[in-house]
Amino acid sequence: MNLRVFSACLLGGFSLQVFAQSPTIAIKVDQVGYLPAAPKLAMFVPQAASAAPRKAFSIRKPEGNSAVFSGSLSDPVLDSDTNDSVQIADFSEFKQTGNFYLQIDGVGRSWNFRIAPDVFKRAYYLTMRSYYGQRCGTEVNLGSEFPGYRHGICHVKGGFDPSAGKAGDHASAYGWHDAGDYGRYVVNGGITTGTLLWAWELYGDSADKLSLNLPESANGQPDILNEIRWNLEWMLSMQDSDGGVWHKQTSDHFCAFIMPDRDTLPSVVVGTGAAPFKSSCATADFAAVMAIAARDYRRFDATFAKRCLQAATQAWAWLKNNPNVTFKNPPGVSTGDYGDRSCGDEELWAAAELLRTTKQPEFGQYFLAHYREYLDSVRPVNPQSWPMVAPLALYTYVLGNGGDKEAAEAIRQKTLAAADAIALRTHQHPYRISLTASDYVWGSNAVAANYSMQLLIANRFQPNTQYRNAAMDNLHYLLGRNSFSLSWVTQLGENAFRHPHHRPSAADGLDLPWPGLLSGGPNPGRQDSVMKKLLSPDTPRGKMYVDQTGAYACNEVAINWNAPLVFVLAFLN
Ligand code: G3I
Ligand code: 9MR
Ligand code: ZN
Questions:
Q1: Crossing angle for the helix pair 390-399 and 186-207, nearest 10 degrees?
Q2: What per-residue string of b and e applies to 515-524 under the rule 16 or more CB within 10 Å gives b?
Q3: Spacing, Cα 552 to ligand 2 middle (Å)
Q4: Packing angle between helix 405-428 and helix 444-461, nearest 10 degrees?
Q5: Domains in the chain, number
């Protein structure tokens, strides 16, 4: 039953009962909404296996419930990721702006959604501003818009772990808490910061105009750059005087579920435990990011830009002598590893970004000597991710007009062929998502977002409606058009998930979690005990998700997962 007594009001002594339907998870819409001119699809999945398919749907206005559009549902198709029998409601022809819901008679109604040219503006604001909420080394206060979402200064008690090869004090400020934990990791901070800087480079015109309501908002610089700089400053503090960059700064174990300012475990710089103590993947990611920052901040703060470039070239020099120092947790340290067997892809990214910024032949030579080893990293599966950044290296070579025609052409071709395949596959998926069976990993929602980013890079090389539509399809999935009818971004959409594995959200005593955070998403790995307890091993991969605080393998949030989402939203604005 989807009927509930909505309200009762007294009219001249008579009690008038107004019945309204409550939304059903059987109908799946993007709870944020759709652009007026874009395709608009919703999904319907009968909830009981015996329930019959339906034939028709209508689009209605929440005020007055009048129908403004009606259409037919497609025949059901079985989705092998979820075992859902999916029917599609296509209302692309409906182009009015406003608030609406979708109704299927005898079934119920969807959550509300909006159609408008600026429909994704707030989504961009919340997801990008979430980085402010993750700030470390400072107090944070989300302000009157989110009363009570605040914490005092955190993690300024630093130092070095014995594995870092150094002793004494270490300035511990800046940076973003990685995820639901309070660690700061260069590898993960690297791809995150790189992705966000790229969002600025590609779509800065729109991002520039949007205030994020930050402490720095009045300084005349774009807020997206203001926020990114918070992490750049921390990354700079992780570079040793020899140019190498330590892997991470965390406590030696994860703290309890307490607010950041209550966490008194020292936040120490962690190294590899043996000379040279710094790791190559971290140093190379650092070099890439600092090279990007050098060109992006030049216009606004030439001194800072110079500092970034110098840091990048020093890191590059260190890499020449230490190309493959990998990292794994030293004894006594149990926080996140972000370990990676090979740093060649990170080094290629560093070379490509340094070339794009400086045009110096040395970087071009390195790139041309190595890019062929990574050409196949641009493919229809496995988009860029923290352990594999080679696609970013290849894309930036083309975006920055890297000199070699043959290399640029090979990259372009790979990129377009991959995007063609992804767009086609997305169009054929019953839920219209790019994910393949093997993409359901820890952080699968970010894989979906990274496919969208990959498609949008391809769209930059050669504008293509199919690429853009497929990129939006993954977004719709994340914002509610999925098996759970959940928006996987906190406080966004009427039925957003509520229990992220996120220490501030769990410890602050407030009802709703901190806003703008993307959940990791379905993960058949079930690496935490909550998932193991609540989900049987034969649950379909796309259903391997529970909205539970303890379920870190499917419901944590992370800065590198939010970043490709911000990228897509920056494009749509
Ligand atoms: O490297 C193998 C690869 O060879 C294999 O093909 C693939 C198949 O599943 O697995 C790969 O390893 C995976 C690894 O990520 C690299 O992608 C592991 O299975 C997978 O368990 C691992 O998950 C990572 C997780 O930490 C556990 O280490 C996530 O990517 C990563 O996002 C997550 O990061 C954590 C930090 O450690 C701590 N802070 C929170 C953050 C988010 O949960
Ligand atoms: O909170 C931690 C989360 O950020 C990590 O992704 C996860 C996997 O490394 O570990 C979480 O911490 C848990 C720890 O691993 C085991 N004891 C319980 C901790 C909190 O649930
Ligand atoms: Zn902190």
A1: 30
A2: bbbbbbbbbb
A3: 7
A4: 130
A5: 2
Q: Give the global pTM.
A: 0.96
SS3 142: coil
pLDDT at residue 12 tops 90: no
Q: Which residue, of 98, 115, 132, is where some domain finishes?
A: 115
Within 10 A of 276 (CB to CB), how many other CB atoms are there? 18
Domain assignment present for residue 516? The answer is: no
Residues 326 and 462 in one domain: yes
**Looking at ligand 1, which residue's alpha carbon is closest to its atom 1?**
340
Q: Are residues 206 and 306 in the same domain?
A: yes
The packing angle between helices 344-358 and 280-296, to 10°, is 20
**What is the C-alpha end-to-end distance of the chain, expressed in Å?**
39
In a domain, 69, yes or no: yes
Residues 142 and 231 in one domain: yes
Q: What is the pLDDT of residue 20?
A: 62
Q: Provide, rounded to the nearest whole percent, the portion of the chain with pLDDT above 70.
A: 97
Q: What CATH number corresponds to the domain at position 272?
A: 1.50.10.10
pLDDT in tens, 466-523: 999 999 999 999 999 999 999 999 999 999 999 999 999 999 999 999 999 999 999 9
- Ligand nearest to the CA of residue 503, numbered in listed order: 2
Q: Are residues 329 and 273 in the same domain?
A: yes
In a domain, 532, yes or no: no
Which of 251, 254, 503 has the most ligand 2 atoms within 8 A of CB, as the residue to mutate? 254
Q: Which domain holds residue 42?
A: 25-115
Q: How many angstroms from the chain centroid is the CA of residue 87? A: 28
Q: Which residues line ligand 2 (CB under 6 A)?
A: 179-181, 254, 336, 550, 552, 556
Pocket-testing residue among 178, 181, 182, 442, ligand 2, by greatest number of atoms within 8 A of Cβ: 181
The mean of the pLDDT values for the chain is 95
| pLDDT(208) > 80 | no
Task: Please state the atom number of ligand 2 nearest to the C-alpha of residue 180.
Answer: 4
Q: Are residues 173 and 108 in the same domain?
A: no
Are residues 278 and 229 part of one domain?
yes
> How many angstroms separate the CA atoms of 343 and 227, rounded?
28
Question: Is residue 184 a contact partner of residue 251, using CB atoms and an 8 Å limit?
Answer: no
